[in-house]
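I am still getting used to backbone structure tokens and would like to learn alongside you. To get us started, please write out a protein record for me. Start from the sequence, derive the backbone structure tokens from it, and show both lines together. Once you have written the record down, we can walk along the chain together:
***
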Amino acid sequence: MVEEFLFFPVQERLRGKSLAGNPYLLYLQQMTSSLNDIDFVEMGRTCFGHAARRTANLLTRHYNRHLSSVGLELTQAQLLAVIADGSASSASEIARYLGIERSTLARNLKPLETSGLIERRKKGSRKGLPVLTSAGQEKVIEIHRTWQKAQEELSSLLGNEEAAMVRAQMSALRKAVHILEDREANARPSPSHKGDLLRPTKTGRSR
């Protein structure tokens, strides 16, 4: 009986019932009213996160279709390209450039190392930066050739001007998010400041 009640539409549960003295039914009425005030279509249409995710999924599928011929996916190809570039001075820098966490980077490196495409020479007791093996160098050349074809297909449809505009807009969106992240980080109290707030005063109370 309880399960049936929970799965009835809200409007059906409210029909013919007195709300007086019943906080649960009052809550259902308020929730229904609040939901009816939300334009979910507009929310989906204007949400930057939703648009970015949909676009990223479509683009990933496009590049993966091409890269399947070399046995890799876009994330692996991007990682090999960054390693081939060789300008990153640390694993953190590689992760930051790719927009991923260090733990995700470590997971992504393992299959490439197992496949013999990269190696990580030890620095003392720790593994150093990944470098391409000879097989990895050949694979990156294949990746670049395949990537160019996928890139040209999109560029030819967009045209040079619109392609440049899309890249500029994506860059502007990333910068905006970085600014918000920096603001949030700066607004957080430092560890030493937190200690000051919790340190008892002469009266025995925390500040």
In short: The first strand starts at residue 118 and ends at 123. The first helix runs from residue 2 to 7.
